[in-house]
Amino acid sequence: MKNTPRGIACFMRKSLACGGVLAYNRGMNAVNYDAVMQKMIAAAPPGRRLLLHSCCAPCSSYCLEQLHEAFRVTVYYFNPNLDSEEEYLRRKGEQIRLLRETGWADILDCDHAPETFAEISRGRETMREGGERCLLCYRLRLSHTARAARKGGYDLFATTLTVSPLKNAAKLNEIGYALQEEYGVAYLPSDFKKRGGYLRSVELSRRYGLYRQNYCGCVFSKAEMLVRGSDG
Ligand code: SF4
């Protein structure tokens, strides 16, 4: 199907309708975002273009395995939260290698732009992982993705962040839906950790020999990991 403005508007309407049901359900039961995603995948006409924000190659492996047959996927590697240029380049290099080896998506590259993360984390340095700093970090990365999706004429945008058991999928999806309204691009909700998604990402990481970092990404999460002395 051609990527016409009418086609996109139709897809958006369906997605917004889904969001409406979600808003109603939110007050009653926890939403199964994985089930919502599966329905949207099943209803997607062939050839839709999805801009997928990826935090790293290991997390993206399972997400791409799930999505690459339903959409024409482009990975958007925007992660200004990473604590050093070295770490940024290492994770990005692994992302590029995974895509080269699998052919599951192409990539829209970005600069590191650590100043954008410094701005949102100022005054929030001592917050624990999962707190307000993280919600702003999610929003920063998703808002850039939504903006790039609009600029590039993509049909949808999404994120790999929900595959992590340490990330709040409900909050991520709330942010995604708000950005859908703001930027006029359909958001594909997810909870990739459901149905064994996280374990599958570990398996795929092993298969492709991917570097799996032991901290989320920012300098604060690295410090927390060092204090814990674990594989956080
Ligand atoms: S812990 Fe992770 S999600 Fe939270 S601010 Fe740091 S990099 Fe972002």
Query: How far apart, in Å, are the first and last alpha carbons?
Result: 44 Å
Kindly give the count of domains: 1
Mean pLDDT: 89
Integer-rounded radius of gyration: 17 Å
The CATH topology assignment is: Rossmann fold
What's the helix count? Answer: 9
Oligomer category: single chain
Residue share in helix: 40-55%
CATH homologous superfamily descriptor:
HUPs
Q: What's the overall geometry? A: globular
CATH architecture grouping: 3-Layer(aba) Sandwich
CATH class: Alpha Beta
Characterization of this structure:
With 232 residues, the protein is of the alpha/beta class. The chain has one domain: Rossmann fold (3-Layer(aba) Sandwich), CATH 3.40.50.620. Helix content is 54%, strand content 8%. Strands 3-2-1-4-5 form a 5-stranded parallel sheet, sandwiched between helices. Helix 7 links the parallel strand 4 and strand 5. Helix 6 runs parallel beside helix 7. The chain is globular and about 45 Å long. It starts with a helix and ends with a helix. Bound molecules: iron/sulfur cluster (SF4). The site of iron/sulfur cluster has 10 residues, from helix 6 and helix 9.
List the SSEs and their pairings.
Layout: H1 5-26, H2 33-43, E1 49-53, H3 57-67, E2 72-76, H4 85-102, E3 106-108, H5 114-121, H6 132-151, E4 156-159, H7 169-183, E5 186-187, H8 197-207, H9 219-228
Parallel strand pairs: 1-2, 1-4, 2-3, 4-5
Helix pairs in contact: 3-4, 3-8, 5-6, 6-7
The protein binds iron/sulfur cluster.
